[in-house]
Design a protein that fits this description.
The chain has about 325 residues and is α/β, with parallel strands linked by helices. Helix content is about 35%, strand content about 15%. The protein folds into two domains: about 5-100 and about 290-315, NAD(P)-binding Rossmann-like Domain (Rossmann fold, 3-Layer(aba) Sandwich); about 105-280, Rossmann fold (3-Layer(aba) Sandwich), CATH 3.40.50.720. It has a seven-stranded parallel β-sheet with strand order 8-7-6-9-10-11-12. It has a five-stranded parallel β-sheet with strand order 2-1-3-4-5. One of its GO terms (cellular component) is cytosol.
Length: about 325
């Protein structure tokens, strides 16, 4: 009932500063820190009106069901595939994420990872440290400027990657469900056609069921033995065992991965490969961007608590 206190439920760890501000401003409960979360949900689930969570954790269906008065799910992160938005909307729950503020940093990292993979920067660093240079020069790498780059998923981040690559004189093409208006890049109808038409494939598509395994064995085959794969989206988009097989057989030249199927666990075959750049999901991980993401989370919570609506609702959640 309206007389029960309105609680903000924090579902997963967040930036320390953000946690402190939320706790200072609202009646906040940190679910993940409770000794018995199930008992809390049973006895107090009805008090929760809003949940704050990370892109990685979301709010799963069981938690949604345990919170009958929940009206808002606020994600720290642009991805929100961990929450069933259609189900949430059907229950009258609004969902927000943190778009735009992380676009530049994610795109910067994607380009850095692309250059690392093609020029083999991380491998060359290992080479120097391992004393290899004193024995023989480092093997020649692949040129980046002027190459053909394919962007899989031309959303905000994909476009920011493409804009940066224009500075390298690359020929950019892309694949997305619907061709994007007002871009000078060539649209290709399938991931396979895109891979066949480019030297490097950069994955910036949203995660979730709709894109699972989109980068398949056939797509990697089409990318070819000189091809490079960069993934800053979600591990689920790439068939990881097909990628391992393609790298081992030399069916693609290299990969740079910021995301994995089962983070933080990275398959041993990838750890053992000198052909992959492995990053611990850091594309948005700069002080500036994480602070801006935290600020946007705060503004979403604030708007919801005062006006009952979110500031940056996800597209599916629009009224
Ligand atoms: C995470 C991300 O939010 O925004 C996303 O979708 O994957 C990252 O920025 C970050 O790991 C914090 O949870």
């Amino acid at each position: 009932t309206s007389s029960t206190p309105a609680t903000l439920l924090q579902v997963s760890p967040l930036l320390t500063g953000l946690e402190r501000t939320l706790a200072g401003r609202y009646r906040t409960v940190r679910l993940h820190e409770l000794p018995d979360p199930a008992a809390y949900l049973r006895d107090h689930g009805g008090e929760v009106v809003a949940a704050v969570t990370s892109a990685r954790t979301g709010v799963d269906n069981a938690l949604m069901d345990a919170l009958p008065r929940l009206r808002a799910i606020v994600h720290f992160g642009v991805g929100y595939e961990t929450t069933d938005v259609v189900r949430a909307r059907a229950r009258g729950i609004d969902v927000s994420n943190t778009p735009d503020v992380l676009t530049d940093c994610v795109a910067d990292l994607a380009v850095g990872a692309l250059i690392d993979s093609m020029r083999r920067l991380s491998a060359a660093d290992r080479y120097v440290r391992g004393g290899g240079w004193t024995a023989a020069p480092f093997p020649l790498a692949s040129r980046v400027s002027g190459k053909r780059v394919g962007i899989l998923g031309l959303g905000r981040i994909g476009r920011a990657v493409a804009r940066r690559l224009e500075g390298f004189g690359t020929e950019v093409s892309y694949c997305s469900r619907v061709p994007v208006a007002d871009v000078p890049y060539r649209h290709l109808p399938t991931a396979e056609a895109l891979a066949a038409a480019c030297d490097a494939l950069v994955v910036t598509v949203a995660g979730g069921a709709g894109t699972e395994g989109l980068v398949s064995a056939a797509v990697l085959e089409a990318l070819g033995p000189e091809g490079h794969l960069v993934n800053v989206a979600r591990g689920s988009v790439v068939d990881e065992s097909a990628l391992v097989a393609a790298l081992e057989a030399g069916r693609i030249a290299g990969a740079a991965l910021d995301v994995f199927a089962d983070e933080p666990n990275v398959p041993q075959a990838l750890l053992d490969s000198d052909r992959v750049v492995l990053l611990p999901h850091i594309a948005s991980a700069t002080r500036e961007t994480r602070e801006a993401m935290g600020e946007l989370v705060l503004r979403n919570v604030e708007r919801f608590m005062t006006e009952g609506v979110l500031l940056t609702p996800v597209p599916e959640a629009a009224h």
